[in-house]
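We modelled the chain as a single entity of 256 amino acids. Its sequence is:
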Amino acid sequence: MIVVKKARDAEDYIHHIYIHMNETDQFVIFSGLTLEQFVLSAGPMQNLLLLKHQYEDGSFNMHTQFEFVPADEIRSFLKEFVDSPTDLRFIDFAEERKLNTLTPQEQAELLYMGHKKEAIRPPFYYQLQNRFVYLANEEESMTKIYFRELVDSEELVVNVMNNYVKDKEKGSAFWRRKTKQSFPIMTVEDVKALRPLLKEGVLISLYKQEKPKSIYEVEVRLLPENVFPDEVWDELTSILGERPEETIRFHLQSLA
């Protein structure tokens, strides 16, 4: 008897995220990435200089006339936007006093990014020591993020996926019996190996396989030629019907 493997439905997956990397201009387009996920998964946050926003509790820098969020207030800032998508564009920076050294040209470049969601030149400033520029639009499902180091974008994806796995597993009685919890961990090397595909634009889908043994998989699919990035979620079922270009299986690792 031939057993036909049942195709997975979109609801069978834990999470999907669309990623398109522009290696030359050092930015990545994401869809399926929330502000909260970015802030919690991109590593320690510096202060945030707000280029476009609707936040009412920010501090004010007289030199640039921009509002900003000190690092120790980012959690409060985040709560404002958890359930309410909005036009939000910001750049991180190390010290407020260095804002006062930005030239008129550099301030104009920041204003341009806040308005157009694109950079005139690589948007990494010595005075700010910024790691990224975050550019989101309420009307679009896409978020554009410039990274000083593109490996930070790969670490971001790894952290987002691993957080989903941890959330899925931490309620399991099996894992609670362990003195050290063991989780399947996706690694930065896994995502680095996908960079040629990331530069084409891919849908990454996280799935838990229960049998014959519990294991997590990440399926990586290029979009069909007739599907554009802003149509990913409307065409999700048909995209998932395509065979993955790559499948990553997580290895078990222990976390204290």
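As a brief sanity check on the tokenised model: The longest helix spans residues 151-169. The mean pLDDT is 88.
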